[in-house]
Known about the structure:
Blueprint: E1 8-14, E2 23-28, E3 31-37, E4 43-50, E5 56-60, E6 69-74, E7 79-85, E8 92-94, E9 98-99, E10 103-109, E11 118-123, E12 129-132, E13 138-141, E14 146-148, E15 154-157, E16 159-161, E17 165-171, E18 176-178, E19 185-186, E20 192-195, E21 206-212, E22 218-220, E23 224-228, H1 230-244, E24 253-255, E25 262-269, E26 274-278, E27 285-287, E28 294-302, E29 306-313
Parallel strand pairs: 14-23
Antiparallel strand pairs: 1-2, 2-3, 3-4, 5-6, 6-7, 7-8, 7-9, 10-11, 11-12, 13-16, 15-20, 17-18, 17-21, 19-20, 21-22, 21-23, 24-27, 25-26, 25-28, 28-29
Amino acid sequence: MNNQNGYANDFISSDVNNDNYEDIIYTPDYSLNWMENNQNNTFQNHLINIYGGSNDIAAGDLDNDNDIEIVTASRNVNRVYYSVNINSDGTFITLPPVLIQEPNAVETGDLNNDGYKDIVVGTWPSENLYWAENYQFRILNHPFDQFACEGGKVSFSVVSTGVIIYQWQVNSGSGYINLTDDDTYTGTNKAQVNITDITTELFGNEYRCLVYDRNNFELITDAAGLYLDCTKINEQQINNTETFLYPNPTTGIINLTPVPNAVSISVADITGKIVFCTYEVDKMQIDMSQIKNGVYIVSIQTDNKVLISKIVKE
């Protein structure tokens, strides 16, 4: 096993993708990565996020959904990062960092015996100790409107914590009803629902997700619409490719020109699976060197719209 991503500031082992094999989480240079155990004495590297480096890593099931999340302390940029394992398969979203002066060590544990792991951060050389109580069961990101052509595919997703049950619903004009997996819908009981082979009858449908915690408390996401508008998609892809993403095709680093009021940047493969997501939008750069070759969709979410563009990784 060779690490060709630079020196590692820290590393730990944990079962990241719930396959009962220990993987490796490590921080080479200014990124967070995990190396998937292929179960044959080889490992495959996966990039989680690019940020200001790390002095310490901790992993634990912070949202009680039977997979591990990752907390990192980065003293040189005075930030603590929290990466959520959204699909229980090692697909992470890194939430906006918490500003703490000189964070040098981090650990997780249930300090107040409420059944949820909290976060403890130690600083150096100031020698302070911080306790971040884990307030659970909340929706972090709601689904947003999607556009597609007839015969195409889209995905709606929710990012939440403390959820053990997901139930996607559709409103076709007569009120919301529960969805079940079939030829059109998959993932109806997961954080991301996928819609394939879209027909004109789905035009104008609204989708939302009901989420439940271990005590069966319920939260409901905002509704998001599905709109069959090929013209809008084509215009977005042409305009956005010219204005915010280069080079295309790419062999590794892609640069994005500043987008006003950007909230998040994500990359998804052609099946809709998210392979990269970050809220560190000020860097406006994505490292795709560890992502397989193929066609991907880059999305930049702003406070009132989503910019979409295709990117080819060679």
